[in-house]
Amino acid sequence: MFNDLKEKRVLITGSTAGMGLAAARIFAQHGAKVGINSHTAQSADVDAILTELTALGGDVAFFQADLMETSDCEKLVQDFVAHFGGMDILINNAGGLGGRENLENIDDAFYERVMNLNARSALMMTKFSIPHLRLSAAESGETACVISTGSIAAREGGGVGAGVYAASKAWLHDIHRNWVKEFTKDNIRFNIVSPGTIDTAFHDGKSDELRGAIANSIPMGRFGRVEEVAPAFAFFASHACAGYITGQILDVNGGQIAP
Ligand code: NAD
């Protein structure tokens, strides 16, 4: 179904764990050239991931970059393009809660950490990638694309203490619509995969009792699995599947909330 992903050059930020790694697996399985990224490089882990993804059929390379830093965003794009000769697909997946704070305790440092991790990182990654995506579309005659990982929190405000995180994801959902207006002429598409509650390290620290209560609030009665989210990235990335789809948000949340 995603056969046209073969040989496509895809950079996935935040992809040594969780949904980013699951997305990297599906692209590797379809013969893509995959750049994986993390802010840290624990070599044993990275080596194992590279071995696994290569065995699946991908041409895979790891790039360490802390996307909280704009200079690292620029270098990541440069390094990826130098390695693979261009870029066809950017997936802005790196992100996280960045801590919980009630409104009355929020200071500038907290605000900047959460916004930089989830919003500025995607903004800068997209900014530096645009010239390469534009070139990809012009040379291939197919659309290039940016996919960002949003969140159900963007739609419903997030849990107590996670308001800035939720707002950062709503910011991302919204700015995609602006980018559609600016870059559709360049044949670049922009779409969001918006997960609900997915079983990753994101939920580390929650008690079994809390996890059970959350699961019971989901119509499907359970957390999602990373491999249940990954095909949504492949769908948006495939020109054959989604060449006429841009500016959309795909919720993958077990029915947790109606869009
Ligand atoms: P995860 O913690 O399993 O993986 C996060 C990945 O991002 C890791 O590879 C980590 O190394 C990387 N990363 C973290 N900070 C980074 C930085 N500064 N620079 C570069 N890489 C960095 O998380 P996950 O649950 O798979 O989350 C992936 C995305 O999905 C995030 O944007 C998150 O906000 C979003 N999300 C998660 C859920 C959920 O329930 N798990 C729900 C909605 C949205």
Description:
The chain has one domain: NAD(P)-binding Rossmann-like Domain (Rossmann fold, 3-Layer(aba) Sandwich). Helix 3 (70-84) packs parallel to helix 4. It has helices at residues 18-29, 43-56, 70-84, 108-140, 153-156, 163-183, 208-216, 226-237, 239-242; strands at 9-12, 33-38, 59-64, 89-92, 144-149, 188-195, 248-252. It contains nine helices and seven strands, in the order βαβαβαβαβααβαααβ. A seven-stranded parallel β-sheet has the order 3-2-1-4-5-6-7, sandwiched between helices. The two termini are 26 Å apart. With 259 residues, the chain is of the alpha/beta class. It is globular. Strand 4 (89-92), helix 4 and strand 5 (144-149) form a beta-alpha-beta unit. Bound molecules: nicotinamide-adenine-dinucleotide (NAD). Nicotinamide-adenine-dinucleotide binds at residues 13-20, 37-39, 66-68, 93-96, 117, 149, 151, 195, 197-198, 200-202. GO terms for molecular function: oxidoreductase activity. Keywords: Oxidoreductase. This is 3-ketoacyl-ACP synthase.
